[in-house]
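Help! Submission page says 'invalid entity' but I think these are all valid:
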Amino acid sequence: MAEVQRRKERLDRGIKVRAESIYAVSSWEETAYLLAPRIILVLGLLLAPLLVQSPYWKRVVTVVCVYGLLGLSFDFLAHFVGLVSLGGALATGVGGYASALANKALGLPVFLSIPLASLAGGVVCTVLLLPCLPLRGVYFAIVTLMYPLVLSRLVEAFNILGGTDGIPGVQGFGGPWAESYIIISALLLCLFGLRRLVNEDLGLILRGVKDNDQAVKASGISVTRYKAIAVFIASTLGCLAGAYLAHLYMWAGLSLFALDFSILPIAATVIGGGGTLVGAVVGSMILVPLSELLREFGTLRIAFYALVLMGFIVVRSEGLMVWAQRKYHQFERWVQI
Amino acid sequence: MEIIVYGIVNSVSLALMALGFTLVYGISRLPNFAHGAFYILAGYLAWVGIRSLNMGYIVSVLLTIFVVGILGMAMYRFFLIRVRGMPISEIIASYAMGLFILEALRWKGLKGMTFTLPVIYPGTIFLFDVPVDYQRLLVVAIGAGIVAGLWLFTKFTRLGLALRGIAQDEQAAMMLGIDSDAMATVATGLGSALAAVAAIVLLPLGNIVVEAGYQVLIFAVAVCIVGGLGSWAGAILASFIIGFAQILTVSYMQSHFQVVVALLAIILTLIAKPSGLFGRQKQLEERV
């Protein structure tokens, strides 16, 4: 019998077990084990604008962060609340227009208009999506897919908000350093904030909503209310990205509702590993520079993302970060059956 | 009178677009988000067959329907089958597939006015003093024909009965020896072939453009949600409601609002009757 008589066994590393509790501070090794991945990410992001020389690639770094934010928002909604949103562009559009309006009409400076637009945009998106919140899975996905299309049609049809010309002359950041570090710090704050949030009570309820909303309802908790809170958080992140983009390009227009803002974050999340939050950021670090290199192929880029997405979802659906975390925390060995 | 005639034509077009999607979802609970892409792909293939390969209208149309059906089957068999039962992955995977097809076609230069399919029988006729071209009448005829054909197929053939069995109770059907995956393959193939038929009948009325692929998907889902998923009567009634609503908006407002009407219909349905017009309790649990 040439049958396989062994299987792979995975065990947690001893250092992971020791580092899980307060004893992590007992030695440098455990502390380093815990901190190393985080420090690599934080330092990597903070140093990225210093390391790249050309203004073009500095811009690419900021775009990576924008898509990282959008990916975070998608990952949070899809894997912690169970709402798959195919319309991330709704939030970027609303946030971008809100910020442009706050800046142009109310005369607010950048540092006020972006936070204000994010919050106001979050409220607007939540109100818009409110009737759809009872929906599940496919239904929610398709309705969110329609929203950016409908809003851009409305802007076109009523010729409001500048119509097809958009709103030009939005105030810029005044320098590449401010440009880069505003979005990098926003991304890091949101990333670590969300990671903490999903382990708080609120995150627990949201995961309950995802796994078994009947049980949540039976506990006397309003599912719709918590879904609304989650959508508010996610669309605030999206609006932050949109508002930043409007100031970055000093222009808010219909292209803020473009398909790119819906698809690329999803692809980034799938590649990076859904449900890890950091995976979305890592995925966009891979995808965005790659798509810049593929810029000469024009619209074939989206086809390329789709292909990568299909490949990952079928062959390696866990994503890179889940795989990396497993390798980091566990070792594998063959055992006789 | 004009509104009634064109409303009927528009409604039947919507029903044609939606039938394939509702068939696949109704039978195997698989949201085929590549539906719109298959629609456009069929248009493109037919165009290639007629214009580039000079194969004649009948041959290339039949070949297109066949090829697209096979492609749909292959998509399920080699691709979607791996993510079956994971709703998030099903949506993303089939959407990615559709996106790939559509954007690859866009890259091939599928935009603008260059790509049109020929009408089957040119000319116009006056119905109650309203000019209607024959192609639009043909849309209505073929739509009715397909609905009747599908009804007969699902009621009186072994395969159709097996499909309905899977749709009603998957586990009981499997105990009776019906292969769930085989039926899902058949259903996706049939759904894609229906998309191809819809494309061949409807596309001569306009140009083959990539954007229409997204619109078809949206209208199909709108019809399905309003009608209650998996319910044929509901889907047909819903396409009439949305179809007439669209024609009314076009004649009294602007054509920009067509998509808005579909979204409004969805939202109103969800608020008033979340299970859809003809939905039953089982579907309600899944959706809400």
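Support: the input was valid. A stray whitespace character was the problem, and the output above is from the cleaned input. Confidence is low (pLDDT under 50) at residues 284-288 of chain B.
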